[in-house]
Amino acid sequence: MRVVRLLVGKDLRLEWRGREIVSAMGLLALLLAIVLGATRSGPEAAPAAMWVTYAFGATLGFTRTFTLERDHLTALLLAPLDRGLIFAAKALTNWLGLVVVQVISLPLFGALFTETIWTRLPALAIPMLLGGVGLAAVGTLFGGLIVQARLREALLPILMLPVVLPLVIAAVGATTGILDGLPLWAIGAQLQLLLVFDIIFVTASFLLFEYVVEE
Amino acid sequence: MSGGAPERWAVEVRGLVKAFDHRPVLRGVDLRVRAGETLAVLGANGSGKTTLLRLIATLSSPTRGSVTWFGEPSAPLPEIRRRIGLVPHESLLYDALTVEENLKFFGGLYDLAPERVESALDEYGLRPLALRRVRVLSRGQRQQVNLARALLHDPELLILDEPYTGLDVGAADRLTATLRASAARGCTVILTTHDPDGAGALGADVTVMLDGRLTEIMPAAGLDAAILAAWFREGRR
Fold first, then answer.
1. Is residue A215 within 8 Å of B60, Cβ to Cβ?
2. Is A199 an 8 Å CB contact of chain B?
3. Domain check: are B214 and B129 in the same one?
4. What gap in Å lies between CA B110 and CA B79, rounded to an integer?
5. In chain A, whose CA is at the least distance from the CA of B111?
6. Nearest chain A Cα distance for residue B221, angstroms
7. Whether residues B107 and B161 fall in one domain
8. In which residue ranges of chain A is pLDDT below 50?
9. Which of B114, B136, B154 is the last residue of a domain?
10. Which of B10, B27, B36, B170 could form a disulfide with B212 if both were Cys (CB 3.0 to 4.6 A apart)?
11. Where in the sequence is the domain holding B150, given as residue range(s)?
């Protein structure tokens, strides 16, 4: 945990000074929310709009995370660390960035799509957090894989989005249920599915990360 | 060698082959570096020097052959890595962090006490730069910090990839002094360079990478004309 704290602390300090990742993700999220809101702003469109925004915001931000680390990855790989810890720290940083984007874009979704967001906020946090963890795990794994590639900004969505599609569908389903006013037990299946996806994606990514950063 | 204690090898490389996309860069490298020795690997650009250093630094796996570190063939890689310091051609420092923050971060990766960072700032003459962000430092100052980063955990093996490139005379002299001091403490130093005279100033033995293999190790002053000619021919290819 000490090493993960150290790595995340360094990433957050760099982000605080540069504000490159959250500002890029946030700007894209705001643009998408506004465009989607202008196209079809009924309450029933809110869950899909939210998760399209988060998924695309994530692909942009997660590519930047590794691009900024590219020249320093050698030092991390040379350190006497389990490389899974490097993954854990990067995934945690990515997830925190996504949470920031989710939080700052919520008012826009509330204003453009449905006010129910405000009354259902605590319940809504559950699929947002669970879906975010899965996106961060897969995005971090593929971000590490393509860090040396030239067209990495184009590659990450191509690689990541098909893999996270089941997760995004489950997140949209859970979000829809919550905004429709269903109790949590009624959407238990979707939440369990999200949890299972998270466990699979986090475990697989943790184990595979060592191989994807090998030359 | 006969009689006395057996020789301690910091690095033993045997039959090392490394290919990228089926194109061999190293074609069977054999190399043994004694503990405490300083060795300069010379060679043309693209001859495979950096590839060899990355293999010795545990950052890459060989296509064929083996590398043994510190005479311990079965030691786990994280333990080996703890004993190696690397200064690659590119800076590994974070531009947005100060010198002190960089050293504290890298010291933390090796679980070093904060006092070690404080002493390193004095030891490598970095105290005046401690609070400056790396992005505002000159190439020579960056290299000084990069070297301090690599030496922070007192490695037994220090690997440097063309460390003199882009340095002015003063910075190059400081680098030489630091490397000589490290060698005097018993640290094994392996570096790549294009400059046989610089290697000589360092008191290093040299070997030349030719056609994916290394020549015999020899004193820097003893580079014969045939090897130099082959080196320059390869550089023009």
1. yes
2. no
3. no
4. 11
5. A3
6. 34
7. no
8. none
9. B154
10. B27
11. 94-154
